[in-house]
Design brief:
The chain is α/β, with parallel strands linked by helices. It has one domain (28-266): Alpha-Beta Complex (putative 2-phosphosulfolactate phosphatase), CATH 3.90.1560. The chain is 36% helix and 20% strand. The chain has helices at 14-19, 58-67, 79-87, 113-116, 133-139, 154-164, 183-198, 207-217, 221-227, 229-236, 240-246; strands at residues 29-34, 49-53, 72-76, 94-100, 103-104, 125-129, 145-149, 170-174, 203-205, 255-259, 262-266. The chain has a seven-stranded mixed beta sheet, sandwiched between helices. It has a four-stranded mixed beta sheet with strand order 3-6-4-5. Helix 6 (154-164) crosses helix 7.
Length: 268
């Protein structure tokens, strides 16, 4: 005589058992790090959260402008795009700033953060064009939510993202330099991942995300930024103070989100 044992399973547990879920049954939040903006795939961005980093200096500068009272930062693809957008705004209400291949564009304000802070930004729109960072922000627009981050506001950005999008997949995008890996952006990605790891809750991290966190946790911010290719280039131009400014961690509470094509300061 054979004995049979019937095993049943609550169907509500299937997503958790099969897909990986948190304690409440939600699909576990996935954290990815992309090494360059060229890895951004529009087809993968629907419903996702994207955090863009160009530590030296585009996103650091954009956040400095918002912290100083700029109405918005409008990211442009290139100089012509920036000029065209500025013409659509009221005269005297904008500041044009940008660079191409690390050279300030003719007729534009110097794009590093401390240099920008010497301009009157309060109540004005910064129309901003850079080789990599503003292009990365434009490429990320198909995502559900796009943020700009730096070392200075990493903690504030992650706190906001976890509060507002606790179950969304997050893509942390290193802008890089014309398809090349940038050490300083990868360090910044590691700082964001470290903030996520320290926050309550379970998340799934890509290998690139784990590698970035390991780098950040074993390195000094200023040494990493100053020793990077871009950091050394800035030092050769006498811009050490700009690098030091970018290397400060968690000193700003501003959170910046792209809304209708403009980077706006939102509540932390």
């Amino acid at each position: 005589m054979q004995n049979h044992v019937l095993i049943t399973m609550d169907a509500s547990l299937l997503p958790r058992a099969c897909k990986g879920a948190d304690q409440y049954g939600y699909a576990m939040q996935k954290i990815h790090v992309l090494l360059t903006k060229e890895e951004l795939d529009e087809q993968r961005l629907e419903g996702r959260v994207v955090i863009v980093l160009d530590v030296l200096f585009a996103t650091t500068s954009a956040l400095a402008a918002l912290q100083a009272g700029a109405n918005s930062v409008i990211p442009a693809l290139d100089a012509n795009h920036a000029r065209g957008m500025a013409l659509q705004l009221a005269e005297g209400t904008t500041v044009l700033s940008g660079e191409l291949d690390a050279k300030t564009l003719p007729g534009f304000a110097h794009p590093t953060p401390l240099a920008l802070l010497r301009h009157e930004l309060q109540g004005r729109d910064l129309v901003y064009s850079t080789t990599n960072g503003t292009v990365a922000l434009r490429k990320a627009l198909p995502a559900a939510h796009v943020y700009a981050a730096s070392l200075r506001n990493a903690q504030a950005t992650i706190a906001h993202v976890l509060r507002e999008h606790p179950h969304s997949s997050v893509f942390i995008v290193c802008a890089g330099s014309s398809q090349q890996f940038n050490l300083e952006d990868f360090y910044g990605a590691g700082l964001l991942v470290s903030c996520l790891q320290q926050a309550p809750g379970q998340r799934s991290y890509s290998d690139a995300a784990l590698a970035a966190a390991l780098l950040q946790q074993g390195s000094d911010a200023l040494s990493c930024l100053a020793g990077s290719r871009v950091g050394r280039m800035m030092a050769s131009r006498g811009l050490d103070e700009e690098v030091q400014y970018a290397a400060q961690m968690h000193v700003d509470r501003v959170v910046a989100c792209v809304i209708d094509g403009r980077l706006l300061r939102i509540g932390a």
